[in-house]
Amino acid sequence: MNLKSPQSSDIDWLRANPDISSIRAAVVDLNGIWRGKRLPVQQAEKTLREGIRMPLSISAEDIWGEDVEDNPMIFDAGDLDGFARPTGRGLLPSDWLARSTALIPLWMWEEDGSPSSVDPRQVLARVLDRYRALELTPVTALELEFYLIGHSDKYPNKPISPLTSRRLDGDAIMSLDMVDHFEGFFADVYAACAAHDIRVDAAISEGGAGQFEVNLLHSPDPLRTADDATFFKRFVKGIARKHGFAASFMAKPYLEQAGSGMHLHFSVLDKHGNNIFDNGSEEGAPTLLYAVNGLMEGLVESTLLFAPHLNSYRRMAPGSHAPTGICWGYENRTAAIRIPGGPPEAKRIEHRVAGSDSNPYLVVAAVLGAALEGIEAAKMPVDPIEGDAYSADLPQLPEHWPKAIKAFENGKMCKRIFPPLMHEVYTLMKKQELNGFSSRMGEFEVSTYLETV
Description:
The chain has 453 residues and is an alpha+beta fold. It is 34% helix and 18% strand.
């Protein structure tokens, strides 16, 4: 195994911060949840050099952290250990806990040194290998929306402004005042981005009270794009707790307010650094249109990756600023696939379906995988939509979670994009998550039927 030695800067940083007594070493699972170990700081250098051993199945726990029933990795294979090896990002400071610590991000490898086919970062790397074989480089950027919420026993409350001590209410699209209410929080977020070497752009207030969007700048390394989004989600939650409230990337925490999305922008460069989507025209090159067609053809079966949970489908409702129809268009935010304006050399695609509750690695893998399928097939898409996509007669994305699970399970394109074991385990995981909700009764169900029928 080709193990990377720790950088001297990592060790120097630890020596310069003697208050750090422990580190976190963790991988990201298929649901986007960090899973790993708390280790004494004395283990940092060894972990940076060699990684740690963990079960390969750690990548495939369900949303509650339980084994997935019938997972062949567990019972058929004996729940084998693999190596969780450093991704190369080194130590990432985490100063929002009671005692400062640092995270070492890892990804999973088999005992023989081959990539784990279930680790989501490895899944994305597999898609990127296909681009690399064609001497193509995707350039990607993500926009993430989230809510700051007040603490409550059961349901989220709108946050109390640190500036006025009053609970926020009402919509505030691009309100500077809304951002200013939380200046201390955002100052810490941007400082954490700098400490994590994450390039960020604007922060804006969005459609709901306490809802914000932060844009991560484009990168020619999609693995880094997904890494940064995953780190960002983690430390935004931690910093929010430090400031006395909470942050949620749940797709739809309030029924009456806008949901939270995670939009992916991407272009593709050839070996000379030229944007293959650009031919100097406003419409874009044929390759752009081929990629759009691949995305359109893959939308139904990949919806489960963009909307992975029960709550995800509350966001995907007509007129809710989340796409529901299968369509594309130029400068049209009601379309699932949007071609933004701008100079021809910056021609790119915006994929608008994913919720902020989805796993960035799987979103980027699904989008880039489908785009490449389209480029290779070289088929033109249907005409772009004009006007309101919600009122148009269009084929629709799966409107319910069970339908999306079935579409993913049977999807032919997803079986080409994703490793067979990952495809099987992810399907089993989502069926188990669905059964977990189906087997429980809520208050509304009981109050409706208890003395009525």
